[in-house]
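ok so I'm stuck.
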Amino acid sequence: MSGEGDSSGGGGYNKYSCCYRIEFNCPEFVWQNGDACGACLAKGRPSKRETE
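replied:
not stuck anymore, here's the structure
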């Protein structure tokens, strides 16, 4: 098993900063790039992630 690719141990998932990190100094992380965290959504800040 050793030497097979992912050495980060994260299970293949990346965490991204909340899209309001710069504007409101939000320290939270999300699973989808461009998304707002739960705390920001609760404060009425919309997600900036494109949806179809």
